[in-house]
Amino acid sequence: MDGILTGLNTAQRTAVTSEASVLQVLAPPGSGKTKTLTARVAYFIAHRQLKPWNIIVCTFTVKAAREMQERIRGFVGDEVAKKLKIGTFHGIALRYLRQYGKHVGLGDNFGVADTTDSKDIVKRIIVQTQSELDPAAARNRISAQKSKGVSAEQFASIVSKNVEQRDFSQVFSLYQAQLKACNLLDYDDLLLVCVELLRSHPECVANVEALLVDEFQDTNGVQYELMNLLAQRRNVITIVGDPDQSIYGWRSAEIKNLGRMKEQWSDTLTVNLEENYRSSGAILHAAQKIIEQDESRPPKKLQATHGIGQRPVLRKLPQARHEADWLTSEVKRMRALTGNMLELSDFAVLLRSAALSRPIETSLGAAGMPYRMIGGMKFYDRVEVKMLLDYLRVIDQPSHNEALARVINVPSRKVGDKTVEGLQREASNKGLSLWTLILGFAQGRTKVTTNLNAPAQRGIEQFVNVVLTLQKKLAAEPSGLYELFAQLQKMIGLQDYLKTKYPDDHETRWSNVEELMALAIDAQVQASTELDREQEAHAPAYGEEAVEESALTAFLANAALAASIDEKAVADGEKVHQVTISTIHAAKGLEWPVVFIPACYEGSIPHSRAEDNDEERRLLYVGMTRAQAMLYLSCPGKSTRQEDTTMSSFLEQPGVSSFFEEHGPSISHAEVQSLAVTLRRKCPDVAATATTTAALDLQEDNYWPLTGEMPFTEAPWQEGAHQNPAVPVFGNARSASWAN
Length: 740
Ligand code: ATP
Ligand code: MG
Known about the structure:
The protein is of the alpha/beta class. The strands form four sheets. The protein has a six-stranded parallel β-sheet. The longest helix is centred in the C-terminal third of the chain and has 24 residues, at 506-529. The structure holds adenosine-5'-triphosphate and magnesium ion. Magnesium ion binds at residues 33-34, 214, 589.
């Protein structure tokens, strides 16, 4: 127990041990909210005798969930930590739906439609109905409605006579019908259907003893509802969050959920934490100076517990490549100056959008510095990875029309786009899935009206043969994911296909395939060892046995959920000797000794397509407050598209520049020391005893008057950031690190 409370400050201890059933911890970045939350989980187990499998912990990303589990493991040991129900809202919903989904009419083997699937479905409906809507916008709009809890029927019932709205309503309804026909749930459905389940069958959560939610400021309406329902039996709820870090408004996150909670439970206890344990005073000052530009924000107190440290750097450079080279040389210089005490993993480059990474990748790559990417350039988004997953989806669930249409002609089987479209239309007119139609055709049972020439006919037969063969193999050996992969890539001649299609970087692409096969092995091992036997033993008496899902179904569901984070990179171990490149969104909750935020220009941050300027400012604030000892902001004179830029308006406000160095530190003895302090801080034992220098009350200086997870951490305009197939996206990072 004492381990649990050791090193916590008074307010943190209060929060950890509080008897209040509903507890809010609201506090600025780096004040130990996540630390407090994990300690409270451990405290519940050790002192209140709560069963770990009855505790639900929600975080925003898969990576955050892992880190949290890691921290809790430190208190209660591996065995106990493993039994917690810990994950993203989507992951937790998926888990309940797999187990109890049949109560709300879900088929056993439902699949998860990822963002690309949803987009493809919407696109097809728009073509079929000759709608004028923009597919991407329509899809985002559907998602926004669903995040607010508005169903297609509800929308249809309130829709006005406005033609555009009626058009959208029709697309929305057809989209839902299509998902249903394919036995698919999209990300929004995972939450919505789980809400429906828990509302109608509260028995499913009868033994939940406590619910804890990190990054609460970013929950949306449906997640809030889900949270209530998960905790409905005992209402023991702990949430931690920071309104200043609310950066998911574009995904319908609702900051007013904080107030809602207080209204709902008048006895909610709120604990504020006011000391920052992460950043140097100078970094905090600069971050405050940015966030306080939002005048609607209430004043807050925040004290730095570390020394003032080095002033952050704000640097202008001619072009993006100069910026990248400068950044790379700073990494080198800082390492040299600290006698390589700083490792590459102590540096992070945080980007407003994934598309900005290319010059940085090039520069780090040229300097031979390994790097890894999280958020944005997703492993699961790479063309070859997507294609293999699509094949697996078809094998797992042949009614998955979208996946089937994407791969039927990859590698080419002479079945052109027009033919595929024709077949899709025909199948849909006949009320069949595309698979049923072509299977019947290949087996000579069904005639098709779509015009098929001889090569196309043969192509379809070949494709059907691949799928049938692999389905048989899977049936014979349900856990043999790796073997399934191996046979699949052989049957479709994947290696040759990649060589011909991508002569310049087929090796990189092949290494992605190997990576995916490695993940399949991992999944296989996990499936066989981790069946949560203990939890099942303590599962509610209610309900039938948990549905046994096949290794492949589980693998695909996880792949869909992992969309925002490069799981493998994270799973590779605690000490990854690589510079991190991440979007700011995906860096939420994390920290590094040295942080770079390049491309701070108008149009990038604030983003030209962002609707909420305050949210953009908070995003910059989140980025800046990831830094412990050194923070570098920079702005190139030209964008990567060679357009002239101006410095971000957030950094051009009066008085801001005095918080920054212009030319970068001519590194001083003090700086080296502050870095050393940071490094020591990384070791918790030392941290607990480290003398805090010159605690700094920001209030005094008038700094404060003011403001605010499936895995899915990107703004819509970041999607498709790496569509240019000629540019290896992730490959550099991997080959570089392997070379090392
Ligand atoms: P964010 O808002 O960015 O998610 P947070 O409030 O969750 O931040 P944590 O990540 O929990 O903050 O903590 C920030 C850092 O401060 C961590 O390195 C943590 O170990 C350290 N820390 C927190 N509380 C204390 C404490 N009482 N003593 C020493 N270090 C602490
Ligand atoms: Mg946190």
